[in-house]
Design a protein that fits this description.
This protein is of the alpha/beta class. The chain is built from twelve helices and twelve strands. The strands form three sheets. An eight-stranded parallel β-barrel has the order 1-2-3-6-7-9-11-12. A two-stranded antiparallel ribbon has the order 4-5. The two termini are about 20 Å apart. It comes from Desulfatibacillum alkenivorans DSM 16219.
Length: about 325
């Protein structure tokens, strides 16, 4: 791949629209994006969704690009972008057994594949402490770390057996968080030893189950990295990649969210994303940030041999995930 393709493949973009419009064509043609993420604003009914996904993949192929990762947040419960007639699930709190997980994954994968998606931003692997007013209540599996690991592991296993790339989130765990990172930057002062004994347990199972992706949170964990939120932290990327042995795609949460956008200019965020060793940057809203991110990544790859080597490794991980789609 040339530098432009290497740069663009590390971006997953959101857009406004319900068809392959000029904005979406620009993202694919000019910024060479590796993935798209669609939200309720893009998704009306099955035929339109299928056409949108099909047209996007065809246009990427025409532009000489690998297949797109086409992702959606379809957890069930309060986070379900696909509305009826797609099956509506209760989400993680409704999954109590391996049989529940398998049935969820079977139906979910069938409907997502038919619609044209190949990646689901699920399951949530966050652990909610007992009697804690967590931001993740209603989205997390019920129970302690081992039960979250068990049920989440089954969801990952079966989603991927049925043909959908699974993404475990939000590393290293946001179950103790009460502040919404869509709006502000939350801080976590949980000691590393406690994180390892509790919050990281489900993610170790995600590593074991070979989850295609792991999404990082926008929380600043002071005992792991006092300077950078997890999503752009070299220390926390190293924790997952080196200490826990994860070999799949590491991705940020949406870099347009207030937790990072209010704290740092986009230029700083993307430069730090590259230094961190993360693979895929999510920018889920249209605007200049996608162009800015592409240009910064491209310049970094051109000017720094270390960033180029890291970038090639990131794209190789993404291409490996795309082999089966």
């Amino acid at each position: 791949m040339n530098i432009e393709d290497l740069a663009g493949q590390r971006l997953m973009a959101g857009y406004d629209g319900t068809t392959l419009n000029d904005q979406l064509k620009e993202y694919i043609r000019e910024y060479r994006v590796g993935g798209l993420i669609f939200f309720a604003r893009n998704l009306i009914e099955p035929k339109q969704i299928e056409q949108l996904c099909r047209d996007s993949q065809a246009y990427a192929k025409d532009q000489g690009l690998p297949p797109l990762l086409i992702a959606v947040d379809q957890e069930g419960g309060p986070v379900a972008r696909l509305k009826p007639p797609y099956t509506q699930f209760a989400g993680n709190p409704g999954i109590k057994s391996e049989e529940d997980a398998q049935e969820y994954a079977r139906v979910m994968a069938k409907e997502l594949l038919e619609a044209g998606f190949n990646m689901n931003m699920a399951p949530v692997m966050d652990v909610v402490p007992p009697d804690f007013d967590s931001i993740m209540i209603g989205r997390a599996f019920e129970g302690g770390p081992e039960e979250v690991a068990r049920l989440g592991g089954y969801v990952i296993q079966y989603l991927q057996e049925y043909g959908i790339l699974a993404v475990a989130k939000h590393f290293p765990g946001i179950g103790r968080t009460t502040l919404d990172s869509h709006l502000e930057l939350p801080y976590s002062h949980t000691p590393r030893a406690q994180l390892e004994a509790e919050d990281l347990v489900p993610f170790q199972e995600a590593v074991k189950k070979q989850a295609s992706g792991v999404m990082f949170s926008h929380i600043l964990y002071t005992d792991l990295d006092p300077d950078w939120p997890a999503s752009i932290s070299p220390a926390i990327v190293s924790l997952l990649r080196e200490d826990m042995g994860y070999t799949g795609i590491i991705m940020t949460d949406d870099l347009d969210m207030g937790a990072v956008a209010k704290q740092f200019p986009i230029e700083t965020v993307i430069e730090q994303f590259m230094k961190s060793g993360s693979d895929l940057a999510l920018i889920c809203h249209p605007g200049p940030n996608i162009k800015t991110a592409f240009n910064i990544i491209r310049k970094g790859l051109e000017s720094d041999p270390n960033l180029l080597a890291m970038g090639r490794a990131s794209v190789q991980r993404m291409l490996a995930a795309k082999q089966g789609i």
